[in-house]
Amino acid sequence: MKKIFLILFLSFSLHSIAQPVAIIPKPVKMELKEGSFTIDRNTSLEFDSKLSNLRNTVSFFSNFVNDVSGIRLHQHWKNGKKIYLKIRKEKVVGDEGYLLSVTPQSIVITANDPKGIFYGIQTLIQTLPKERTNAALQIPSIEITDYPRFQWRGMHLDVSRHFFTPNTIRMYIDLLSAYKFNTFHWHLSDDQGWRLEIKKYPKLTSVGAWRADRRGILWSQSQPTQPGEPTTYGGFYTQEQAREIVRYAAERNITIVPEFDVPGHSAAAITAYPFLSCSGKQQTMITGGIYPKDYESTLDVGKDSVYTFLENVLTEVMKIFPSKYIHIGGDEVDKSPWAKDSACQRLMRKENLKDLDELQSYFIRRMEKFLNAHGKKLIGWDEILEGGVAPEATVMSWRGESGGIAAAKQHHYVVMTPGEPLYFDHYQAGPEGEPLAFGGMNTLKMVYDYNPVPKELSPDEAKYILGAQANLWAEMIQSETHVEYMILPRMLALAETDWTPLPEKNYDDFYNRVQQKFREFDQEGLTYCEGNFNVTFVPGSRNGKLNVTLQSEIPGAQIYYTTDGSYPGAGSILYNGSVNIDSSMKIRAVVVQNGIVKSKVPSQQSFVVDKVSGLNVNYQFPPSTQYMANGINSLTDGIRGTLAVNKYWHGFAGNDMIATIELPETETIHEVSAGFLQRYSDWIFLPQWMKVEVSDDGQNFHEAGKVKNDISPEEMQLLIKDFKIDFSSVPCRYIRVTAKNLGVCPPGHPGEGKPAWLFADEIVVY
Ligand code: TNX
Question: Which position among 187, 265, 327, 426 bears the catalytic label?
Fold first, then answer.
């Protein structure tokens, strides 16, 4: 659909208000027509009285209209025009689809199921203002056929790390429902808080929902509650509140999938009931990222009493949540207490479980059996694949897509929620000028461009992908406005990814509709991120000469830049096509929209230009496909690696780096250097040594110099070291740089004896 159809400004009169039509997610088929329907004091909203389950939807819409216009829709025809809701038996648009027809005479929504009618109503609402106008409302004539691409369209919220009130939850649900999500994944328990009243175990909330107040202190530096210290910070939902929220969500077509994260991430439950852990010892609530030594956060899965506890908890949970899925977590389990625990060891012998992964798998299977026996399905994080996945389990793939791919290949259902780009606790812009986030960068465009069906899957396997979900972990988030900020507008991008057919998606068009939604957010008083105004630098080369392409996510915006170190602005050089890099320089750039500089700070990138810049690199052992940086010639692209693993480095797993570069003609050289990374925690070590060989013919090489590493592999400090070799000038045509991989991780390292990584960037020759 063309932009002009979507962003159509309709006539504006004193008595009626219309706004541009910007529907998100974009409908499957939509056609704007001449004229419009006016909702006024005579308009009636009618439906077949046999369809009493439409009553909720009817009052939902009537209340909305009343709120924005003061008009009360009639339930029976007066003498005005009609809005009519119809359920049709013969299948046309599936359970969640609808047909919407607006003409100057009537509005008709047709669907196979009340869910579809509700979505038709949500589409109608998107054509209306979001603040009180006291005027008749105009809806442009329109014909829509619409239905979703995926059946699981989810958003998650962590209420454990910080507690959010029922009001905030209802706000969250309102947003989900406005953009046609159907699943709210409610992360109700974790180490820092248990958030649902369980009648049989009152301490879960009287103890597990409260901790010392550490607001104002960084999460990573937040000390545990001290013995005797008042536990004043926290909160929980009573069963009655939770039921009310389930009802509120159901009226908006949203299923709540509750998560109780076990057997790891269970410190709050253990603090309330110490018998749940292996040691059974008393502990206080942690308040953030500091876990004292020997702190218990894993359930003792060797004890029957733990299963009885969980079954009792789930029995109450299942009475509150009608969802067919129950999420049992399963992520990041510290299994080490099990190795020393006699009950676990006994169970392993009895059940013939060969390692701790199989013990975890036993636990998950047992939970699954219980849930299945009660007509429920188990869903868990992708770690539930380890040690063998439970027979009917659905897998939530968060550590990238690999868990989801593996599960789909084994014919298990999958919800895709890869950290990149679907963790909404990561930055969406900046990071300068943004609220502190957990890390990473998941921009609006990255979310929009995400396709939940990985190309590794055959069409048959792809059927196991239920859809995609974004997760909002709340370590860094304490307020409702901050919640809004993190999800708006990224959840709109996910809404379209989950709903709109792939060929209908178009980022520029989406971006324009988002700008219209910003007006509505302003009307509703919602907080949102205006955009990612960073400039991205994409290095390239042509005929052995470096250049760089500057990119921005903002359609239609301009980029201005400087190369002399000065601060860029709308008076600097206007970018139009790639910039040649013929000497070492720093480019600083800003995004300018309608003459206004939008970037809070300039983006910048330094380039080193030397004798091998822009030349091809040939490897004896190619770098790992996981760490290709800017492509195969990343070591000569003029951009140096940074302290982050995924920034510009070429990684070699267990192999040496043997890189050969051919100069365009014989040249005299006298210095070769290469940078390497040490990142102990990520199994990345400096080379043992580096040597340089030169040759005239590419066949016969002789050594020009060698330098040894003088930093211990046990050095845990993150560092970059340049290995540099100076020699008296030698003429040569070919340069070969060899860096000797440490081979295996050193003794005492968690990866002891396993292949070590070697990370290299950049080769510089003078
Ligand atoms: C990983 S995702 C976690 C959470 C953290 C999150 C922070 C998952 C299953 N576990 O416990 O909050 O990272 O991004």
Answer: 265
